[in-house]
Input
Amino acid sequence: MRVPGAEHAADFDGVVLLASYPNSDLTDYEGFSLQLVGSEDGVVNRASYDGARPSLPDDAHELVIEGGNHAQFGNYGEQSGDGTASITGAQQQEQAVDAVLELLDAA
Output
């Protein structure tokens, strides 16, 4: 996945990656960065997700939402290969929103 606007990173205060990872080098990015993934996400390529971690700034934040899956970051239904969530979509989205708001408050 290509990070939209990576070539214009200085124009953004932060980047939030929902069940995704950068394919651009953001190590020098000075805004906040947050990467969220569900513990039951069966769609995101974990090897690529983990391998992209060095492309994020050293102070990047990550949150693994326990019991969350890939599809529940949106409202588009089940996805082939996704894990079974043990929390509701509303609970997962609330945790995601809370994490983003916490970073925005700190920025």
The CA atoms of residues 18 and 36 lie 5 Å apart.
